[in-house]
Amino acid sequence: MSRLLSELLGAKEPLFSLSLRQLEQAAGRPGVDIRLTAEIIGQVRQKTAELGLDPDDTTPEELYHALLTKIEEQDRQLVKQIGGSDPENIAQLMPLMKKAWEGIDTPKTCWVIKRSVAKKMLKKMPPKNIMKHLHYRSVDSMLKNENLAEIYGALRFAEDSDWLLKFNEGYRRLKPSDFQTRKIEIVQMSLERWGDIAAPFIHKKRHNITHLKELGVILMLPITPQTHLRGVTIFVFPLLLHYLQEIRLYSAFFKLEQVKPNFGEIVVETLNADPGHHAIMEGQHIHWRVIQRYFGKLEKEKHPEIFEPHVQPEDLHWRKAEDLLYAFDPSLGFWRDLDYVGIMDKGRPVTLNLLDMAASYVNQTPYKDRAIYHFRESLWNEIFMRYMGQEILEQQILKQLDNDMIEPEDIEVPR
User: Which ranges in 10-160 belong to alpha helices (H)?
Assistant: First the structure.
């Protein structure tokens, strides 16, 4: 039964099946993959029927187009919910989405670099391209008059790769005392100041939202008021919620790692490469995202002492971006718990993941190139979450988090 999971993930065989068997044996509870596969198949049939289609006589491509129609309907509903009138008017919708995000009741604090420290880093290594672009001769004058978050956000667009590499090396000198707790904020970057240099990034990413994990900022990059784009709200608004969770996720990770002597190096490595080897579970590298999500679902009194005193239950608090969206607009509940659900067709999944379907809709993606990125990440996370729920593997993860050295286990593939 792990074959469907393997195909959906594009995983290598026989390594994937062997890894699942090792997890099954370690957990002492076989059949996790079988139950997950059956659940996915059942969810696809149920949602196909909810769309008014026959589960026994609907092709994956027909399902895909029905899901796009659903996205279109719900985009119009979400636009009304935030106070908009034109689903394609980006100039109107961006500030409305920002206001709606700010009104959502969910934890928005994070542990990030102090602004004073961030300014010192720029003074030590002035961003010459940005200073030229904004017509400043003095970095002090620029920092006095400009939004620090906008400057940091523009670094990746305006400065060359060599400058960025050298600047990022400065993070190695960071100490826990250089961090502070403050609220995550959304910043709308000015079209007049940043429109030309942000345009290539927007074209490449096919959206205008990015974030700074180290500063606790979500950036709305500028788009010309004349731009009209269908489905922008149902794609961008969930993305704003997704980045909120991402910033808090890495905030909790940095808090956990602050006791390590190589804290600065961990920050650099995380920001540059985001390695996924925060723990090992039967030979499988487990990303902090999975660990935080698992322990974040536990009741407050059940949180392990290992996270204290630096990491508190509220730091691990986990609510999927989609759940925040459903609370904001209950009519979007169709997509609940579908982030890891999909079926195969012609060697590529058809996903029921909201962000992927919204991305395909907003970009008018051809069926053969349909979006699958968020789905595959979610399915990997779901598999590890289910195995981590077994007590023996949960204890294995906690033991590793309590030690500085983690040695990966070698997996031998049968010949």
Answer: 15-27, 32-50, 60-81, 90-102, 115-124, 128-133, 139-145, 148-158
**d(C-alpha 293, C-alpha 384), whole Å:** 11
**What is the Cα–Cα distance from 344 to 186, expressed in whole angstroms?**
37
SS (H, E, C) 281-294: ECCEEECHHHHHHH
CA 317 to each of CA 106, 283, 299: distance values in angstroms, whole numbers, following the listed order: 10, 27, 10
Amino acid at 343: I
Tokens of residue 296, six digits: 């974040």
Q: What is the pLDDT of residues 86-116, one digit of tens each?
A: 999 988 999 999 999 999 999 899 999 999 9
Range of the domain at 273: 87-347
What would the two tokens of residue 403 be? 């030690």
What is the number of other CB atoms lying within 10 angstroms of the CB of residue 368?
10
Cα 372 off chain centre by: 14
Mean pLDDT of the region 320-340: 89
The answer to whether residues 246 and 216 touch, using CB atoms and an 8 Å cutoff, is: no
Give the number of C-alpha atoms closer than 13 A to the C-alpha of residue 334, restricted to the C-beta side.
20
**Taking Cα atoms as reference points, which of 216, 307, 320 lies closest to residue 258?**
307
- Residue 7 included in any domain: no
Closest by CA to 255, choosing from 317, 298, 299, is: 317
* Three-state DSSP state, 162: helix
HSE on the CB side for 216, CA within 13 Å? 21
Residue 171 token pair: 């993070």
Q: 295 in a domain, yes or no?
A: yes
Tens digits of residue pLDDT in 349-368 = 999 999 999 999 998 999 99
Q: pLDDT per residue over 4-31, tens digit each?
A: 999 999 988 887 887 788 777 777 777 8
Residue with tokens 């509870």: 29
What single-letter amino acid sits at 331?
S
Residue 155 counted as domain residue: yes
Give the tokens for residue 189: 């970057």
Amino acid at site 241: L
Q: In the chain, how many domains are there? A: 1
368 is written with which tokens?
A: 């053969």
Examine residue 135 and state whether it is found in any structural domain, yes or no: yes
Q: Position 199: which residue type?
A: A
- Helical ranges in 318-409 per DSSP H: 321-328, 354-362, 373-388, 391-401
